[in-house]
Write a structure and sequence with these properties.
binds zinc ion; 10 helices; Metallo-beta-lactamase, Chain A; 12 strands; five-stranded mixed sheet; alpha/beta
Length: 273
């Protein structure tokens, strides 16, 4: 569809996670989270930027730099211990969302819509800079983030429910620009309200932005699911993506923390011969 002018990505720093996080190992999460001694090499924290004739949209908003500078960003006690065991972040001063958008020629003030794949810390980091935008998120995700075990489930309420944010809960599907170019739909599993976006452009490969449904598009293609999230939900959503790829030849799956995503997107942005 001609109405999409450009799709780019920026990364708000990098994150190392456990190998058991990337592909399911069979051992329970609590076990590997408390005992694993290995980290993956640093992976990106991708924010996708969709420039459409009728507006500028983000898919995810990265990790907030305050998480590496403010000792009070994370919970204390046992939950704080789990957060430190789960992921290690590095975010330089010029790796804020605003600075990264400026680097590729966008002003954060021009962002009309931020679609959030899910409400974990490394996807909501830019919310404080987006009080002027529509924030679209799965309704079940908002419910989970308000739930009693939210903090243990990876939701940092004080960094999510900020004043002056314009939430738009998604139920079912949404045609973001009304022309079929960006279709949002739910792909639960990593979290209860995780969503994905199918981006279709004339003469270019279709894209599927999946958040944390996978950390490696090549593993997703083989049906391998990550070690974090509800197994049945991850398997069902992965199957749905594989079926979608059959209906959309050349579909390029772009995840939030896939080191291959930048190269995959660059290749997809070249016209089909
Ligand atoms: Zn993530």
């Amino acid at each position: 569809m001609q109405s999409i002018e450009k799709v780019s990505l920026v990364s708000t720093g990098s994150v190392a996670i456990r190998p058991e996080h990337v592909s399911r190992s069979g051992t329970p999460m609590l076990w590997w989270l408390t005992t694993s001694r290995r980290w993956t090499p640093p992976r990106p924290i991708n924010v996708y930027v969709i420039e459409h004739a009728n507006g500028l949209a983000l898919f995810d908003t990265g990790q907030n730099r305050a998480s590496v500078t403010d000792p009070d960003y994370f919970p204390r006690g046992l939950n704080g211990f789990f957060y430190r065991r789960l992921a290690r972040f590095e975010i330089a001063p010029d790796e804020t969302l605003t600075a990264q958008l400026a680097r590729i020629g966008y002003d954060i003030a021009d962002v009309d819509t931020a679609v959030i794949s899910h409400l974990h810390q490394d996807h909501i980091g830019g919310l404080s800079e987006l009080t002027h935008a529509r924030i679209i998120v799965g309704e079940a995700e908002l419910d989970a983030a308000r739930g009693r075990s939210a903090e243990l489930d990876g939701y940092l309420q004080k960094h999510i429910f900020l004043p002056d944010l314009h939430w738009e809960p998604l139920r079912g599907e949404l045609d973001l620009f009304g022309d079929g170019s960006v279709m949002l739909f739910l792909t639960p599993g990593h979290t209860p309200g995780s969503l994905s976006a199918l981006v279709q452009r004339t003469g270019l490969s279709p894209l599927l932005l999946v958040g944390d449904l996978t950390y490696d598009a090549a593993l997703l293609e083989k049906g391998v699911i990550p070690g974090v999230g509800d197994k049945a939900g991850l398997l069902a959503s992965t199957r749905r993506v594989i079926e979608l790829a059959e209906r959309h030849p050349g579909l390029v799956v772009l995840a939030a923390h896939d080191p291959a995503a930048q190269g995959l997107l660059a290749k997809a942005n070249r016209a089909i011969e």
